Amino acid sequence: MTTDPGLPLQVSGLRKSYPAGRTPVVAVDDLSFSLRPGGALGIVGESGSGKTTTARMLVGLERPDQGEILVQGTPLAARTRGRAARLARAKAVQMVFQDPYLSLDSRLSIGATVDGVLRLHGSLSPSDRAARVRELLAQVGLGDREAAALPRRLSGGQRQRAAIARALAVEPTVLVLDEAVSALDVSVQAQVLNLLSDIRRDTGIGLVFVSHDLAVVRYVCDEALVMYRGRTVEHQPVADLLASPRHPYTRLLLASVPRLGWNPDAIAGQRRDLAATDTPAA
Amino acid sequence: MPLLEYEALHVALPGMARPILDGVSLSVAEGEAVALVGESGSGKSVTARAALGLFPDGAETGGQVRVDGAELVGADAATLRAVRTSKASMIFQDPRAGINPVRRIGDFLTEQLRLVGGRSRAEAEARALELLGAVGLPDPPRHLRQYPHQMSGGMLQRVMIAGALTAEPRLLLCDEPTTALDVTTQAEIMSTLRRLQRDDGLGLLLITHDLDLAAATCDRIYVMYAGRIVETGTAAGLLAAPRHPYTAGLLGSSPPLDGPLTRLVPVPGTPMSLAESAPGCAFADRCRFVRPGLCDQAPPALAPVGTGLVACHRAEELTALGGPATAPDPATPALAATPALAAPATEENR
């Protein structure tokens, strides 16, 4: 892989396996992609396809067996020693998880949570920090009332927006979202999706958006990568992927989306055929 | 006579600002697939559980719920037992939460067949094998000896459907049966449920938050908001021309998989919790068509509009304008001429 400091994220030959009996389970196998500045990549797949393991490797929660992750041309430290290295990695990649109730500290107000991040990562004075907290929360549509509230006083959508504000406080190069809208009610999900497209437009942060929902990926991302049993089976611009899916699994995934005139019997048959072939050849 | 019939079902918990269910009426006929769609806290699961005579602890109940003619509100233990063991069964979202992890699939399936059905062990096993085959599992004899952890979520959900069928019910209540599963697995489960409904004439009540899934798999849809049915109609009719602003809002909130991609119009605010109440329409403070003086006075009743029923004070007026999905935004000059129509700006109205 040629190192390109102009690219927010470059991933090459990433592999992760877990011990399981005699033969280890390969969760992610030879994954490579790069993200252009301001780009958004959707990683799509079913449970067990390796998409969450990928997200966790990108933020350093899992260590890859092989392969390299470069953020703006600099390798992401596989192991961090000391405060400076940890802060540097946090600055490179931030993550928003599926369940904002579990990922926010239940004893801290939303404002205090964001303030804590600014205190760790910057040298702003307390009054400048307060102004920045207000600005960050306003960016995700939260006001002073929400800033003073504990996470449990907020709705799911508000909590998820607070989690996004906390991630943005670090001003990361790359933001990884792992099923970040799946747990939200439909009417609330749209608020967060619009927020993500605004963030793309206004900040130029690179997004890696992990999801099982192709329609949501189409809305947020310009490219999509389909994973199946740990392997990349297809990587295309979203529009092309939806218009002319090449891999049988991508076609199955598209057919599986419920709509009027849907034929679940045919999809079930298609799925059995795919399982019988057993080879995720691209 | 419908297989399942609710008439003005009312369920309230003391100390809450509003009832959990406020006058819910719906019906499911033999061999019919009906969906009840709503967001979290709308009361859809409470509605489904009422069909088994299960009500929240300490709840005040009113109205009627009949399964195959048997009244369940205030029913005695014998009636409840009769309905639960032979008329209606329920399938839940998380199959792993409903099965003992240290017992084999075979034990799980034969228990009811032997205890309630009065079959011998051999007869019960033969029936369990039949049922595992009926729900489309590939190797019934092997599955009978497996433990829950040896099966995927999709396979285990089919075991749960087989378990629900041991009672030989006429009615299947499915509470978000595919929400925890992959989309490709969802199709398999829905295909199994549809086959039971079509071939064996079971009545199906599908509880879901997914309007598209409801429309794809059911004949009729009820949309629920804050404990009330706000709209009902045929799946095709409701999807093509939603009449209630909430239904239109739900449809406008999900990005489309094809066609032009425009900015989503989210429903502002959040669904109403049990700690909140409204004197008028519960959806009024999130509705872009709200008219003060009309919508905040009394809750709207379900009334016929087009081919369905809608509970909205302005349903006929909005239908005349082309329906809430396509009616001009109240902020546009044509409508803003009536100042009362202007949507209040909220911080979440973005």
UniProtKB/TrEMBL annotation, chain A:
Species this chain originates from: Kitasatospora paracochleata
Family: Belongs to the ABC transporter superfamily.
Xref: InterPro entries: AAA+_ATPase, ABC_transp_ATP-bind, ABC_transporter-like_ATP-bd, ABC_transporter-like_CS, Oligopep_ABC_C, P-loop_NTPase
The ABC transporter domain, residue ranges: 9-254
One matching Pfam family: ABC_tran
Taxon lineage: Bacteria, Bacillati, Actinomycetota, Actinomycetes, Kitasatosporales
The name this protein goes by in its record: ABC-type glutathione transport system ATPase component
UniProt keyword annotations, A-Z: ATP-binding, Nucleotide-binding, Transport
SUPFAM superfamilies linked to this entry: P-loop containing nucleoside triphosphate hydrolases
From TrEMBL, chain B:
PROSITE patterns documented for this protein: ABC_TRANSPORTER_1 (PS00211), ABC_TRANSPORTER_2 (PS50893)
Protein name according to UniProt: Oligopeptide/dipeptide ABC transporter ATP-binding protein
CDD domains tied to this protein: ABC_NikE_OppD_transporters
Gene3D superfamilies: P-loop containing nucleotide triphosphate hydrolases
SMART domains documented for this protein: AAA
Origin species: Kitasatospora paracochleata
GO MF annotations in UniProt: ATP binding
Membrane topology: Peripheral membrane protein
Transmembrane listed as a keyword: no
SUPFAM superfamilies: P-loop containing nucleoside triphosphate hydrolases
Alphabetized UniProt keyword annotations: ATP-binding, Cell membrane, Membrane, Nucleotide-binding, Transport
Membership in a protein family: Belongs to the ABC transporter superfamily.
Domain ABC transporter: 4-251
Subcellular location: Cell membrane
InterPro entries, per database record: AAA+_ATPase, ABC_Ni/Peptide_Import, ABC_transporter-like_ATP-bd, ABC_transporter-like_CS, Oligopep_ABC_C, P-loop_NTPase
Region annotated Disordered, chain positions: 323-350
